[in-house]
Amino acid sequence: MKIFTYIVIVLAVLLIGLNVSQIDTSNPLEGNSSVALIGVVATLCAVILIVILKMSKTIEEKTKNL
Questions:
Q1: What is the pTM (predicted TM-score) of this model?
Q2: What does the pLDDT look like over 38-59, one tens digit per residue?
Q3: What's the domain range around 14?
Q4: CA distances in angstroms from 57 to 17, 20, 24, 47, 65, listed in the order given
């Protein structure tokens, strides 16, 4: 599970980089730029969910050892 979460985080960071490069700074809410912004937000949500999952697993391991 540890390796899977790290792989997902690395892939998400790569997707964020790809989507940021697609954003047109003069018109960020039109055309492909809006799709890229949606992709960035969705990928950030995925990263936050994975971090929450990792934190919950560490809390579970600590409480299991008590």
A1: 0.84
A2: 999 999 999 999 999 999 999 9
A3: 2-64
A4: 28, 31, 39, 15, 13
